[in-house]
Amino acid sequence: MNILCTPLYEQQLKVILQNYAQEDFTATKKFKLYLDTILINLPTKANKYKKAQLFDDENIKEIPHENFHVLFFIDKLSDTYLILTILAKK
What is the rounded distance in angstroms from the CA atom of residue 74 to the CA atom of residue 8? Predict the structure, then answer.
């Protein structure tokens, strides 16, 4: 079981964390720690998340976290979870 992140996700997360850190460093650490915990537990919790509204594919799901949605793809053939992007809620 692999959990991989796209460069897009990593870049978006970096910007989000930099913006948070300017306001409240402690809140930034909590945000990142909680997000990491969600992603580490993804293999056992993936079924609890809803299908992503932006895609018509049951293998693309979204994780709501604070004011964001983390989209991920379940690749059943390679037994991999690919973290695609993190989007601000509208």
Answer: 17
